[in-house]
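Design request, tokens follow.
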């Protein structure tokens, strides 16, 4: 719904309301489409709703918006479900193995987050990826 609100408001209105930092994100979404949406969903650079509005205003294709959201959020959802399943399993059957599994998934979550952030920060510092935080 917020994607369509952004589409309805238009690029100029959203840029005026959101400010100059968002303007850069909007340009990158419009330019890179699917890849930009995947990156924005993998890395929490701006609130979810704001990204949706900006994507709509950027005139990114609905197909790229939806597919980018699915690809970008899918791994996080799967890992969260695995983590929750392991926590529930450890609570039902407390054993060193079950707690080791929970700890392993937690460490994997942290490592993947750090690697992704460093990867995209390195790209940003080289000037090839210009999706910056909206804070």
């Amino acid at each position: 719904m917020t994607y369509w609100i952004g589409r309805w408001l238009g690029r100029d209105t959203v840029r005026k309301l959101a400010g100059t930092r968002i303007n850069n994100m909007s340009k990158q979404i419009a330019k890179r489409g699917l890849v930009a949406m995947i990156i924005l969903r993998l890395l929490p650079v701006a609130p979810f709703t704001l990204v949706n509005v900006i994507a709509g205003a950027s005139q990114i294709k609905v197909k790229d918006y939806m597919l980018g959201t699915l690809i970008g959020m899918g791994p996080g959802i799967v890992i969260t479900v695995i983590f929750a399943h392991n926590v529930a399993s450890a609570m039902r059957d407390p054993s060193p193995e079950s707690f080791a599994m929970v700890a392993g998934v937690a460490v994997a979550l942290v490592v993947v987050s750090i690697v992704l952030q460093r990867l995209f920060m390195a790209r940003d510092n080289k000037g090839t990826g210009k999706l910056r935080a909206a804070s």
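Comment from the thread starter after seeing the answer: thanks! Confidence is low (pLDDT under 50) at residues 128-135.
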